[in-house]
Amino acid sequence: MDRLRRLGEEARALGLDVIATVMNFGDGGAVLPQEPNLAEGLPVRDALFVVAGSEARLVPDPPPLVENPGFELPEGDSFPGWRDDLGLAGTAVFADSRVRHGGAHSLRISFSHSPKPYGWAWISQELRVTPFRLYRVRFWVKTEGLHPERVVKVSVWTGQRHLHYGGVGVAPTQDWKCHDLVFNSLDNSRVVLRVGSDSGEAQGTAWFDDVSVEEIGLLNVLRRPGCPLVVRGEDGTVYTEGEDFEPVADPLLGRLYPWGGFSFSHEPPPIRLTPGSRLTEGQRLRVSFYHAIAVEAGQVSLCLSCDRAYEIFAEGIDTLEDVLQPDGYHIVMGEIRVANWDESCANRHLKPADLLVDSIRRCMNIIRQRNPGARIYAWSDMLDPWHNGVDNYYLCNGSWSGAAQSVPRDLIIVNWNYQSHDGQSPRFFAGLGFQQLMLGRGRDVRTWLDANSDLPGLRGVYAFGASSPEDFARAVWDWVPAGNAVE
Q1: C-alpha–C-alpha distance, residues 117 and 104, integer Å
Q2: pLDDT in tens, 133-143
Q3: Can you name the CATH fold of 2-36+300-434?
Q4: How large is the C-alpha radius of gyration of the chain?
């Protein structure tokens, strides 16, 4: 805290304003290491568990079937059970009998030979799944000379959205290694499993083998109000936690590393029976619960409707006001990629846009109660119909459209979408009466400012990715330190 206090004192001595970045709902990494149950939860409904001895464990119902998981019996470079969607068999997609993990063949994809500019290369297979169940895809990958590393993907596609977002996490060159990904089927009974890449920048080679899909149980189960766990018999009897079975928790929830993080490869915990349980050997149970999910590089969102999150953020503002005394706050309402699934949200019968408006108002009120004159900023993207304020955004339940029209106008928009769609975004916010900061990397934002000098409400420029303040100032304003000549 002493270092933070000195930072505020030094900034004031230099005549600089201090803007604190707070209240990140899109990536809950500041909160979840301490309270991982505050993550947004996806629902699992009526998963089948069967009692055996002193435990009840999940039994796949029905088990998903991957046809030809080992890429065997190829017909040339095509594989029975798999679709060559892009017609790349023999060009970028090959059956390999020399390099394999198991069986007689593997799938080899040469990304360097995939057609450009798109560079896509994959094969796919449709799978039957049960709606609102939790699944894990497990597969083996070997790579050689991959660039960039994240080009390799095994994805789950519904026709409208992906159910898993992010790369596989392979090294540019690695020997055979097992990889996992987890997805919730949501309201889908059929999904498409894709193996390969949809990156136009892909170079190098990857081999795939021994693909499996399994239904799994209480992985990263969330335990808080708004994420109930229900265990009932198939006759409708509801069993009581603490009486019929021990309290349920995943001990590895948010404990991938000592500092937090979520694991999706560990084994889910069972339901453990109490000594006096009414549950009997072989009994079939239907279990409903909520679980955390990550997108992209381990990003886990907070629940927008969980009161405890706002209590924690309020405590943080109290501390900042005492120690730092900021001139303003930047609330991080950006890239909220999982929302509006658990009961805390669903019982409000609102779309994500309405939840966002309510959350922004709550956050602004928390700040105003402690610092009435503070300037408050927020990212543009979730409010922007030209950016992320749309339908079917990542794993969100409902639409983000229309939020900007209901947000307080004294919120200052930090706009990082000023160049796309012919500059529609800044004019959209200006038309609603918002003041804006433009986020830029240097000369790009200078060019934009010159072409849009008539836009009302521009407060300045937010430096992003510049190597130094001097470099950024030179690019934006042609500024140079005293004594240096302009080149």
Answers
A1: 33
A2: 999 999 999 99
A3: TIM Barrel (3.20.20)
A4: 26
pTM over 0.70: yes
Instruction: Tell me phi and psi for residue 48, to 5 degrees.
Output: -85, 120
**70-111: per-residue pLDDT in tens?**
999 999 999 999 999 999 999 999 999 999 999 999 999 998
Beta carbons within 8 Å of 416's beta carbon, 6+ residues apart: 379, 380, 381, 439, 464
How far is C-alpha 24 from the geometric centre of its chain's CA atoms? 13
C-alpha torsion angle, residues 240, 246, 247, 249 (rounded to 10) = -130
Write the CB contacts of 341 (distance below 8 Å, at least 6 apart in sequence).
40, 41, 42, 43, 290, 395, 397
Angstrom distance (rounded) from CA 306 to CA 288: 20
Domain spans of the chain, in order of start: 2-36+300-434, 43-290
CATH 3.90.1510.10 is right for the domain spanning 43-290 = no
Residues 6+ apart with CB under 8 A from 400: 351, 352, 353, 356, 382, 388, 389, 390, 391, 393
8 A C-beta contact, residue 349 and residue 370: no
